[in-house]
Amino acid sequence: MYVKITALTGQKQEFLRGGNNGRFVVSVKEKPEQNMANRKILEIIASYFKVPVSKVKIVSGHHKPSKIFDIVDK
Fold first, then answer.
1. Alpha-carbon gap, residue 26 to 14, rounded angstroms
2. What is the pLDDT, as a whole number, of residue 20?
3. Number of separate domains in the chain
4. Residue range of the domain that includes 55
5. For a pLDDT cut of 70, what percent of the chain falls above it?
6. Cys staple from 37: which of 6, 30, 51, 68, with CB 3.0 to 4.6 Å?
7. Helix or strand or coil: residue 70?
8. What is the 3-state secondary structure (H, E, C) of 21-53?
9. What is the CATH number of the domain that holds 37?
10. End-to-end CA distance of the chain
């Protein structure tokens, strides 16, 4: 299942909002340096969908705020 994410990095609060039309907004405290923000977003998405982090992959948007993730259910 593909999930579209808009990432807000370097924020004071961490949250996951949305789900409307398959688009989520994720806010993380980490800065977009050395892949730290992407790793935290992976953890938040895995927790939300109740799957292991290893089942969530970034498909596109590694260096952009707009990202697409693939979540493997099985």
1. 7
2. 75
3. 1
4. 2-71
5. 99
6. 30
7. strand
8. CCEEEEECCCCCCCCHHHHHHHHHHHHHHCCCH
9. 3.30.1200.10
10. 11
